[in-house]
Amino acid sequence: MDILLSGASVAGPALAYWLNRSGHSTTIVERAPALRDGGYSVDFRGDVHLNVLRKMGIFQEIQRRQTHMGAMWNVNEAGKKLSALPADLFAGDVEILRGDLAEILYDLTRDHTEYIFDDSIAALDEDADGVTVTFERGPSRRFDLVVGADGLHSKVRELAFGPERQFLSYLGLYCAIFTTENYLGLDYSGQAYGTPGRMVALYSARQNTEAKAMFWFGSPELTYDRRDTRRQQDLLEQAMAGVGWEAPRLLRDSRRAGDFYFDAIAQVRMDRWSHGRVVLLGDAAWCPSPLSGMGTGLAIVGAYVLAGELAATGDHRTAFAGYEAAMRDYVLACQKMGEGVSKFMVPENKFMLWFMNQNYKLMPYLPWKGLMARSARKTAAAIRLKDYEPQRNELSRPAGPAPRPRPSGRAS
């Protein structure tokens, strides 16, 4: 089949890899003009995640480029270290910057997948034989299937299922992240400072050559243009006004950052992930929120299952049903990991802030200190994956389908 995937971050390229191995033709359209660099750290944990990465042949490269992050220290306004959160709580078995992972997946697929950057899907017109896709910039084209792997604010989901307000569940927090100078000299570590309802953190990245700044704050839902970066920076400054430690400098740095990201922390909840010849994958279908620590692993596993069901059945209706049956309980378990975390991560009042800091201080001495990490690994491994025979046979082949010509000026 000729399959269009929307989104060139993680889920889309991961699915394209498996589809290529099964003999399908794949095209990925991405609104951004190039691969998105930067972003926060993402991790994989447990045998299920790691085995899929090994099947894809990228586990060693991810290991080579992993963050090697150590502890995240809670500090007071003067920068004095108060307590440490061990890396095992938030870094999984292997952690990598999202931008680095996207680059690995792009390199894995670019010879066999047509990439169209700086464009987006504007309309979908489905009939019995396929889908006519209207693009915002390029000419319309026909595809057998369309996959929405375009994140929390999925355009494909909106076109095929309806407005996102039907499916998004806001968790009470907003987050901003960007790359800045490692001016604190952090050595594979991070520091975080919190006040009631707000937190600012800085952690080293890329072998300590740079740092990632993160802001979190509680708020009622805000109304703003998601493409208006200046307005988002204004909202961030308003929310973080009066916060000490390094917040004033980092807020100034945010104005100069080329990779500034700002969004609500939310989950996606849907009764079904497919409609006719359109199917959703990754955050577009089930975003568990960054608080769960499961989003990227879910995307990788979901891509393996969706492509496997298509390879095993050859019929998209049967494959989509099998994909949903295989993933539904796993997704719900991973989403539970993100529920309620906001109250502990960014406490709403002084007492809860004090209480959490005391717990962090005592954690190394408590008998259940590893319980949270073990619980996360157990959840990440709570699915039994099929060994999809067509995929396994294809993976043994030395080469995939030959690259196809790409429209001039549109593909990378």
Which features does this protein show?
412 residues, disordered C terminus, FAD_aromatic-hydroxylase, alpha/beta, 6-stranded mixed sheet, monooxygenase, globular, 14 helices, FAD-bd, FAD/NAD(P)-binding domain, FAD-dependent monooxygenase
Task: Describe the overall structure.
The protein is α/β, with parallel strands linked by helices and 412 residues long. The strands form 4 sheets. It has a 7-stranded mixed β-sheet, sandwiched between helices. The protein is 35% helix and 25% strand. The longest helix is centred in the C-terminal third of the chain and has 21 residues, at 316-336. The protein is built from 14 helices and 18 strands. It is globular, with a radius of gyration of 21 Å. Residues 392-412 have low confidence and may be disordered.
Q: Termini distance?
A: 23 Å
**Mind telling me the C-alpha Rg?**
21 Å
Give me the number of helical elements.
14
Q: What is the tally of beta strands?
A: 18
Look at the structure and give the mean pLDDT: 89
Q: Helical content, roughly?
A: 25-40%
Secondary-structure class: alpha/beta
What would you say the CATH architecture is?
3-Layer(bba) Sandwich
Give the CATH superfamily: FAD/NAD(P)-binding domain
GO molecular function: monooxygenase activity
InterPro entries: FAD-bd, FAD_aromatic-hydroxylase
Keywords: Monooxygenase, Oxidoreductase
Domain FAD-binding: 2-313
Topology:
Blueprint: E1 2-6, H1 11-21, E2 25-30, E3 41-44, H2 46-56, H3 59-64, E4 72-75, E5 81-85, E6 94-97, H4 98-109, E7 113-117, E8 121-127, E9 130-135, E10 141-143, E11 145-148, H5 155-161, E12 168-180, E13 190-195, E14 198-205, E15 210-218, H6 229-239, H7 247-254, E16 261-268, E17 274-275, E18 278-280, H8 283-286, H9 295-313, H10 316-336, H11 341-345, H12 350-362, H13 371-380, H14 389-395
Parallel strand pairs: 1-2, 1-11, 2-7, 4-13, 11-18
Antiparallel strand pairs: 3-6, 4-5, 8-9, 9-10, 12-15, 12-16, 13-14, 14-15, 17-18
Helix pairs in contact: 1-4, 1-9, 2-9, 9-10
